[in-house]
Amino acid sequence: GKRSLHQKVVEELKHYYNGFHLLWVDTKVAARMVWRLLHGQVLTRRERRRLLRTCADLFRLVPFLVFVIVPFMEFLLPVFLKLFPEMLPSTFETESKKEEKQRKKLNAKLELAKFLRETIAEMAKRNKADAG
Where do the Letm1 RBD domain residues begin and end (predicted)? Predict the structure, then answer.
């Protein structure tokens, strides 16, 4: 059904609270990884990816905080997110945005697979023509 304005505001506040909480947890984990790196330990590929994602999220947080700090600028946030979709830290993404990203990646992979299949088929035809 239809949600009231109060429910929408509460949901948005919960979304941002959860996003900041996840970012805080990721930052603590990344700090431990940096500590391990500084003491000569090697990170796994998964840990390295998480560390890079967290660092990128912290850098993305700077322009995002401008929208939170400056009065009434939060009304422009949807416009800037439409123009710069990667501006928001990954912990603030909604499920629909994550699914949309996955769909785009899957479509790109399918297009690449189709291109490679056509290329291999064309190469096979050329080899057959050269051999015959």
Answer: 43-128
63: left (phi over 0), alpha (psi -120 to 50) or beta: alpha
Kindly report the pTM of this predicted structure. 0.63
Domain regions of the chain by residue span: 1-41, 44-86, 94-131
Tens of pLDDT, residue by residue over 35-86, are 999 999 999 999 999 999 999 999 988 887 887 788 888 788 788 878 887 7
In Å, how far are 24, 50, 74, 78, 93 from 21, measured between CA atoms?
5, 16, 20, 22, 13
- How far is the C-alpha of 124 from the C-alpha of 89, rounded, in Å? 46
Q: What is the spatial distance between Cα 78 and Cα 55, in angstroms, rounded to a whole number?
A: 23
